């Protein structure tokens, strides 16, 4: 009797695990979806409508955020790119330019698009920004959010029973292994979506008459930045996005196949709208205190826009604030470079004065502070700077 | 939300995580007392007295969201359920307060919008942040703030005046509900789990209401409802939940 019962229990356990596994595999298949039509809103009873409802609420809150850039010129410019890429959907896209010092943009399923100032700062021309926007539009048109949800739901639904079954069968470790595989599987799914959006965004920018070779350059620049960054690198296995190297190579290959189409690069067009913000946005970037990364960003900016007072001033700020060995000398060199251009910010003199003072070079510090007050007689901090000059005169350091 | 770059640029994910954490907190508050519907109210001052008949109360559009609990315990937002729940809750509050002879005004936002005025929206946003803080710090003993343990002194400050200016109201009543229901898969898992002696969490209902003095911005009364049952999609049950939420309502 006894052996027979054991074998029955064993067989039952095996059958349970097998049944759960079949359910698990079946749960992974998700049906393909049609692209969103212009002006289409999902029917109220669908799962997709639920996500529109939630994002409508998030968008309403976002719309009055203090971080929204309201300048009508920038908004009209970026919106113009959206409409050039997708004239038929452009009326249904709400654009929010958000003051965030990072390279990113995002798309809600309901048509709310966020473009971060960090992405505009890093775009060296309109074609690059168009690729970024095309990528986001593809997420919206391909309805990636709901696809992602259905994938996650199907995979975890099956997993829940599978884990219960493995626990019941006395082999919980199997459930854990499958859980890890499921998570990795879901991240793989989102990476495929990103690849799809990269491809579709690229096709949209080409269709709209932009130079296809600019798309890959976005990733090339970002790679250089990431390699320099202090931030730890993530494991690709659990990444929501493919590696930048892969994205750069794929886009470069697609552009190579097309060759030079005589498309728009639009460097001056972008600069005409955004250059007045460069200083403000670099100040935001500085707040990360990720100095090696910012060093690369400023180097890239100088490569793009040439020897500008603002760019060298921030280069100096970077070294002054970092304050490592030899940074004081580097800061002085950068500030002097800024002052040799025809548009140095007045604060360059003040910053130079502070560095000289810290280097125990009071005469030069005093001269720099005096130059600051000459360059900006109405400076808010005039009394403070005057007190510095008095302190230096009195021999206090 | 889908975004362009993943690595290093976590803000979107962080926001989602923060959202999920908020939901978890609400759920935790809900779980704290699950067996049956429970309420626990706070008042700013014990001396608060029902003011004269001419007091005007602005009823804000109820902030309601309903979800389905997936087999694995994720929350799927449901637009159609939410629509009917919102209608039921708004109607329930209106009729209960009218039966109590309250002098009611209605906040009238355009369809699909939270507010028609930016200043109003700021007040609504602030109230939702303050309300969630109260849930966290006054209802979870382990999260009690040392300076607010014995007092109830939460305020929206000047943000509330925008509502008073537009409506000439003395108080605003804010209502918030989050409700979830087990999916078929979840229900099965609960039963299978129960047979095996494993507790699997089901749907829950959490709500709060707060009365804001529009002169000072102070929250003068606050109540929370937590329940393991309920169904705001049904008018009578929505009325029941609303009545419970208005227990000890001072006006």
Describe the structure.
The complex is a heterodimer of chains A (397) and B (251). Chain A has helices at 2-27, 47-62, 72-85, 117-122, 126-141, 144-168, 172-207, 214-228, 244-258, 267-274, 278-286, 291-305, 309-322, 327-339, 347-358, 362-375, 382-393, and strands spanning 94-98, 105-107, 112-116. Mean pLDDT of chain A is 88; it is low at 1-6 and 22-30. Chain A is globular, with a radius of gyration of 28 Å. Chain A has a three-stranded mixed β-sheet with strand order 1-3-2, with helices on both faces. Chain A is built from 17 helices and three strands. Chain A has 397 residues and is mostly helical. With 251 residues, chain B is α/β, with parallel strands linked by helices. Helix content of chain B is 38%, strand content 22%. Chain B contains six helices and nine strands. Chain B has helices at 11-32, 79-99, 118-139, 161-167, 184-196, 235-245; strands at 2-3, 38-43, 56-59, 63-69, 75-77, 103-106, 171-182, 205-213, 219-227. In chain B, strands 2, 3, 4, 5, 6, 7, 8 and 9 form an eight-stranded mixed β-sheet that branches. In chain B, a hairpin with a 5-residue loop joins strand 8 (205-213) and strand 9 (219-227). In chain B, helix 1 crosses helix 3 and helix 2 crosses helix 6 (235-245). In chain B, 41% of the residues are buried. Mean pLDDT of chain B is 84; it is low at 7-17 and 23-35.
Mean pLDDT of chain A: 88
Largest sheet of chain B: 8 strands, mixed
Major β-sheet strand ordering of chain A: 1-3-2
Poorly predicted runs of chain B: 7-17, 23-35
Q: Could you name the ranges of chain A where pLDDT drops below 50 across 5 or more consecutive residues? A: 1-6, 22-30
Oligomer: heterodimer
Give the helix level of chain A as a range of percent: 55-70%
What is the β-strand count of chain A? 3
The percent range for helix content of chain B is: 25-40%
Distance between the termini of chain A: 96 Å
On the 0 to 100 scale, the average pLDDT of chain B is: 84
């Amino acid at each position: 009797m006894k052996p027979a019962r054991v074998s029955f229990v064993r067989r039952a356990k095996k059958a349970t695990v097998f049944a759960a596994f079949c359910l698990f595999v079946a749960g992974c298949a998700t049906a393909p979806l049609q692209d969103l039509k212009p002006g289409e809103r999902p029917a109220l009873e669908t799962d997709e409508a639920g996500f529109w409802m939630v994002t409508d609420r998030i968008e309403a809150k976002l719309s009055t955020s203090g971080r929204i850039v309201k300048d009508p010129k920038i908004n009209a410019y970026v919106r113009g790119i959206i409409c050039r890429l997708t004239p038929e959907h452009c009326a249904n896209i709400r654009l929010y330019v958000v003051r965030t010092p990072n390279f990113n943009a995002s798309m809600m399923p309901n048509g709310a698009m966020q473009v971060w100032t960090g992405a505009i700062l890093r775009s060296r021309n309109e074609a690059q920004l168009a690729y970024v926007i095309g990528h986001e539009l593809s997420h919206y048109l391909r309805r990636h959010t709901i696809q992602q949800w259905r994938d996650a739901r199907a995979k975890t639904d099956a997993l829940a029973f599978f884990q219960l079954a493995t626990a019941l069968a006395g082999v919980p470790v199997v459930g854990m292994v499958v859980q890890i595989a499921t998570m990795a599987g879901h991240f793989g799914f989102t990476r495929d979506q990103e690849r799809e959006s990269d491809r579709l965004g690229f096709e949209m920018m080409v269709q709209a008459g932009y130079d296809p070779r600019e798309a890959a350059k976005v990733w090339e620049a970002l790679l250089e930045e990431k390699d320099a960054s202090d931030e730890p690198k993530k494991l690709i296995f659990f990444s929501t996005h493919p590696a930048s190297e892969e994205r750069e190579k794929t886009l470069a290959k697609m552009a190579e196949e097309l060759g030079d189409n005589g498309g728009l690069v639009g460097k001056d067009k972008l600069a005409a709208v955004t250059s007045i913000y460069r200083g403000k946005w670099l100040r935001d970037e500085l707040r990360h205190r990720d100095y090696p990364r910012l060093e690369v960003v400023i180097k890239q900016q100088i490569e793009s826009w040439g020897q500008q007072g603002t760019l060298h001033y921030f280069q100096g700020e970077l070294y002054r604030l970092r304050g490592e060995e030899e940074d004081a000398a580097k800061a002085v060199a950068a500030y002097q470079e800024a002052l040799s251009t025809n548009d140095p910010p007045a604060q360059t003199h003040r910053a130079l004065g502070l560095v000289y003072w810290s280097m125990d070079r009071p005469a030069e510090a005093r001269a720099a502070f005096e130059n600051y007050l000459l360059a900006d007689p109405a400076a808010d901090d005039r009394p403070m700077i005057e007190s510095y000059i008095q302190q230096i005169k009195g021999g206090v350091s | 939300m889908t975004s362009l770059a993943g690595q290093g640029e976590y803000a979107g994910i962080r926001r989602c995580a923060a959202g999920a954490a908020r939901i978890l907190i609400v759920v935790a508050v809900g779980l704290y007392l699950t067996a049956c519907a429970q309420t626990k109210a706070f008042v700013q001052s014990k001396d608060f007295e029902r003011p004269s008949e001419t007091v005007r109360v602005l009823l804000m559009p109820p902030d309601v969201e309903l979800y389905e609990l997936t087999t694995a315990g994720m929350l799927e937002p449901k637009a159609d359920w939410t629509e009917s729940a919102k209608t039921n809750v708004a109607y329930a509050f209106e009729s209960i307060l009218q039966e109590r002879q309250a002098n009611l005004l209605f906040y009238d936002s355009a369809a699909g919008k939270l507010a028609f005025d930016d200043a109003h929206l700021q007040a609504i946003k602030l109230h939702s942040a303050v309300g969630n803080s109260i849930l966290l710090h006054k209802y979870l003993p382990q999260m009690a703030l040392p300076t607010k343990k014995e007092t109830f002194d939460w305020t929206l400050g000047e943000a509330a005046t925008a509502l008073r200016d537009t409506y000439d109201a003395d108080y605003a009543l804010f209502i918030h509900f989050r409700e979830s229901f087990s999916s078929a898969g979840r229900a099965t898992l609960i039963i299978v789990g129960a047979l095996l002696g494993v507790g699997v969490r089901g749907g829950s209902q959490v709500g709060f209401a707060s009365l804001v003095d529009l002169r000072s911005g102070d929250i003068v009364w606050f109540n929370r409802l937590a329940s393991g049952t309920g169904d705001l999609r049904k008018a009578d049950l929505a009325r029941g939940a609303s009545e419970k939420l208005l227990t000890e309502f001072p006006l």
